[in-house]
Amino acid sequence: MTYRVGILADDLTGAAMMAGEFARFGAPVTITDLESNQPDEDCAVWALNLASRNLGSALNEQRVRQGLRRLAEWAPDHIMLKIDSRLRGSPDAFLAPALETQGGLLILQGFAADEYQRWPGVLGAPENHVAQPQALASADWKTLVEARRLATMVSAFPSPGDLIVRDAAEAGMRLWIGSYGLADALAGYLSSLESGPVLVVAGSYNSVTVEQVRHLKDNGVAHLFVDTMGGRSARESRFDYYRDRLADALAQSPAVVISTIPTHSDTAHDSAPKLVDRRPGRRASKKVAEYVASLVVAAVPPNLAGLVLTGGSTAEAVLRGLGCGALRTSGSEAISGVPVLETNCSKFSHLVVAAKPGGLGGSADLLRILRIVAGHSSFRGGPGRDGHPANAASSR
Hints:
The chain is an alpha/beta fold. The protein folds into two domains: 5-193, Rossmann fold, CATH 3.40.50; 195-378, Four-carbon acid sugar kinase, nucleotide binding domain (Molybdenum Cofactor Biosythetic Enzyme, Chain A). It has helices at 12-23, 57-74, 91-99, 110-115, 138-146, 161-170, 180-194, 207-218, 231-252, 266-269, 286-299, 312-321, 365-378, and strands at 5-9, 29-33, 45-49, 78-82, 104-108, 129-131, 150-154, 175-178, 198-202, 222-225, 255-259, 306-310, 328-335, 338-343, 351-356. An eight-stranded parallel sheet has the order 2-3-1-4-8-5-7-6, sandwiched between helices. Strands 10-11-9-12-15-14-13 form a seven-stranded mixed sheet, sandwiched between helices. Helix 1 packs parallel to helix 7 and helix 7 crosses helix 13. The protein is elongated.
């Protein structure tokens, strides 16, 4: 079932900014004023422009209550309140109605973070809210949500915001207060629930890709290092071992990265027989790329939702092995220079693909691409975690 998120913002640009973060993940979004009709049934994100920025506290609060009533009729799974970057527009009055019935997670960024200490009323006494939620364990989050308390944090995104949003959401948090960084983190988390598994195949030996794979691992993405050294006979002796490990990882995890160059900890934890204890060469050979592709073809499940590929030889070999001869653009980019592509393979329908040059991007960009691919799969007919279409009609 596709998620629903309702957004309240005190002006049009704020509503568009927040909805746009979900649109980057492929979610159908609608932006309206308070008087317009509800969006179509297939809409996942409804952003309401309250037009209340300069109306004063009393009218601001009145507009928020009206917006909450409109959203309640639509029955969203989550509600987001857009905080102005300079804390303009009576923020206390803006938040108070939503916090009367539930707790929430408040994350401030940028200029708003600098102004945080001068923000007066809505936070109340220290015992009414929890600072530094990044230190909370799962049980603590559940207690906080059940007690309807407010967790507050001054942070930069995407890290550690993604993990905090995940922990809070899994504990039942449904009210989110912040700006575009929080919207990005929530959109990424919700998309990962909707989508079938996404596989990242890192065949490039470029140092940029190595750092990007490390960043994926540091952010909880399941990782499989494939030792391709030692010649053909050595690779063949390890094929069944790696195939089974990859299949298990894809069955248990929403995202998996497979790489052919070790990071600092891989060789110590990999129990496969090691015939050559050295780092591979700078570029994958054609045979190595074909070996990795054969592992992917043998191990991926029928509900594979997306592929993220780095390294030209590996990308071509994987797509060729899967029978994906033609790709079409979706009209959007995961990051600058990396379009979101779609293909219908012989084994998969509506497969979302992104291919990134090995030397492109910063350390966090491979994770960003992974999250965007998962999101687009959720809303383009790709398989969900249960094997059925992720965007199957809602039973609401």
